[in-house]
Amino acid sequence: MSAALIGGVSLLCFFLAYRFYGKFIERRIFSTSHDAKTPSVELEDGIDYVPTRASILFGHHFSSIAGAAPIVGPAIAVIWGWLPAVVWILVGSIFIGGVHDMGSLIVSARHKGKSIAEVAKSVISPRTRILFMLIIFFALLVVMAVFALVIALLFISFPAAVLPILMQTPVAIALGYLIYRKRQAHLFTLTLAMVCLLYFFMWLGTIVPIKVPPIFFSSEILTWVVILMAYVYTASTLPVWVLLQPRDYINSYLLLLTLGSLYLGLFVAHPTITAPAIVASPPGAPPILPFLFITIACGAISGFHALVSSGTTVKQMSLETDSRPIAYGGMLAEGALAIVAALACTAGFASRASWGQHYASWSAASGFMIKITAFVNGAGGFLESLGIPASIATTIVSVTIIAFAATSLDTATRLQRYIIAELASSVRVPALQRRHPAT
After folding, report:
1. How far apart are CA 120 and CA 147, in angstroms?
2. What is the pTM assigned to this prediction?
3. Residue of 196, 13, 2, 166 lying closest to 93 (CA atoms)
4. Helix (H, G, I), strand (E, B) or coil at 2
5. Number of structural domains, the chain?
6. Nearest alpha carbon to residue 14 among 340, 333, 266, 338
7. How far is CA 337 from CA 17, 45, 68, in A?
8. Residue 365 dihedral angles phi and psi, to the nearest 5°
């Protein structure tokens, strides 16, 4: 089976879904209005509630929801064959995930930007609010820990990616300053300049790879985790326009350019899928049902997206009608990423024998770096077909994965601050309602 054909049909499905089904649910289900007053306008404070144009907010939302999961999930799920993974990604993102994301954004917007826990209080009962917030608190704690560990492992495995990721912070701060303080109207020119600068740092990273010595707890991993926690503390307490929003915005262009390049490389290379369409019972693997739906969550449907929609995105949405391109469009873009991840892990192998060796059993394919390596090698091969040197192609792919994970870590930390502040309000602890103590 041609991987390019699968990729092309998938992109066509996403386009038709956005054009027709997305418009249908916008008009007939949610009845969005251009005149509806959004929380970002009604409660604007210059810190968390900041009215933002849709193109910039899409960047924040897409970068936040698309962590490493839409890559790792398909990389695991193809052990049951490429067909179940592709079908679930298409059906899930179009008919379930996109509607879920858009719905949670609109519902929160119509409740003054409250979290889903606060919405549950008014819709169900006050007791539900506390239970919901506790569940969200522990879920976000796990998300933050996992993403911090993932980024640390990737920094250690791909030291060429460290410099471009670190330089995203000053570049984002400069972009935020130029847009919001200097009121520079030439957003396209600024975006182009900043993205080109990031690609320059990617090239420089291949020449100057950075390795951090084990400063804290005699561990390189824990040293990176400490550095990342210090960074996300700063990012969470700064006004959203200073770092979080511009960083996610330029990251989204970086990620979309990489995604577009992967599809272009797929069409140029025109590889054949070496994996079988369906593997009924892989050795040692759990049954495909229900584990396919558990394995591919981000990329099809994920509850984390509701937290992002009702947490940071809703506080920046200027118009209610922006919900379709931001939430529904963002989910479809994540679906496109999951599709290319599945294809990279099935068509990126030279032969069925090499694929079979990698996915010989559940234990053989286990381990985070094994899954990421399968994607990096396959996706790197797609980029190499465009004439990009192997070292730079690997750096681009690894930077893309880390950038996805880092933006999700940023957003999860800020969301956790909101949840702690809401919990503190419930138990009457005013100190924890402030930004710095809550973070």
Report:
1. 28
2. 0.90
3. 13
4. strand
5. 1
6. 333
7. 16, 34, 10
8. -95, 5
Which region holds residue 62: left if phi is over 0, alpha if psi is between -120 and 50, else beta?
alpha
Indicate the Cα dihedral angle 29, 30, 34, 40, nearest 10°: -160
Instruction: State the Cα–Cα distance between residues 225 and 230, nearest whole angstrom.
Output: 9
In tens, the pLDDT along 126-137 reads 888 888 888 888
Secondary element (H or E) of residue 200? helix 187-207
* 102-115 pLDDT, tens digit each: 999 999 999 988 88
Q: At residue 344, does pLDDT exceed 80?
A: yes
Residue 381's region, left for phi above 0, alpha for psi from -120 to 50, else beta, is alpha
DSSP, res 38: P
DSSP state at residue 362? T
Tell the residue number behind the tokens 């993102």, with chain if given.
93
Q: Quick one: angle between helices 390-426 and 116-123, nearest 10?
A: 40
**Position of tokens 């089904």?**
21
Mean pLDDT (whole number) for 359-372: 75
Which residue range(s) make up the domain with 250? 3-438
On average, the pLDDT of the chain sits at: 88
